[in-house]
Design goal:
Order of helices and strands: HHHHHHHHH
Radius of gyration: 20 Å
Distance between the termini: 54 Å
Largest sheet: none
Helix content: over 70%
Structural class: mainly alpha
Number of domains: 2
């Protein structure tokens, strides 16, 4: 029974009590379900904090405990999971920018010397700029100061990352100015 139509039919036949019991069982089943449900129903800083913790642990691991693997996929999964749970573009962009802030902090602290790190950062910056330049452009004023701060901090980084960020920010700000004059 892995067909959604069958599952949906059975869910419709369930009493409220049994449906709540099923959701509780899913909640207890694993941490991802707990985070999803917390994000869906709490809509606040508490649920965002769990995802920020996940991003920080993935991008800026605690080297004192022997964990030196940077896991961009875990950080990106956290953002994706949060967005699916909440459908909240503002808080999702907040998490995406937090990803960049933590990555930039790691660059400043350790002078990352592998291109894949910079490529992942650039990819996320590109996603943020694309969203702020298109679907979520009304949020640009909300995040503008953080974006510009990231651009300044990235200037002396490696692998052309700083130049790419500067170009993306100039294009984003230019598109905002062009929209205001249209």
């Amino acid at each position: 029974m892995n067909d959604w139509k069958e599952i949906n039919r059975r869910l419709e036949d369930m009493s409220d009590r049994n449906l709540k019991r099923l959701i509780h069982d899913l909640y207890k089943a694993n941490v991802d379900n707990r985070k999803f449900l917390a994000a869906r129903f709490s809509k606040g800083k508490a649920s965002v904090k769990k995802y920020k913790d996940q991003i920080r642990e993935a991008i800026y691991p605690d080297y004192n405990f022997g964990d030196s693997r940077v896991r961009f996929s875990d950080a990106k999964k956290g953002i994706s999971d949060f967005e699916k749970a909440t459908h909240d573009p503002r808080q999702t962009l907040d998490l995406m920018i937090y990803f960049l802030e933590v990555g930039t902090e790691a660059m400043e602290a350790f002078g990352m010397d592998y291109e894949a790190f910079y490529n992942s950062m650039e990819s996320m910056f590109r996603r943020v700029c694309a969203r702020l330049g298109a679907n979520d452009k009304e949020l640009l004023p909300v995040f503008s100061a953080r974006i510009q701060r990231l651009e300044r901090r990235s200037r002396d980084t490696g692998y052309g990352y700083g130049d790419s960020v500067t170009n993306m920010v100039a294009e984003l700000v230019g598109s905002k100015d062009n929209n205001n004059h249209a």
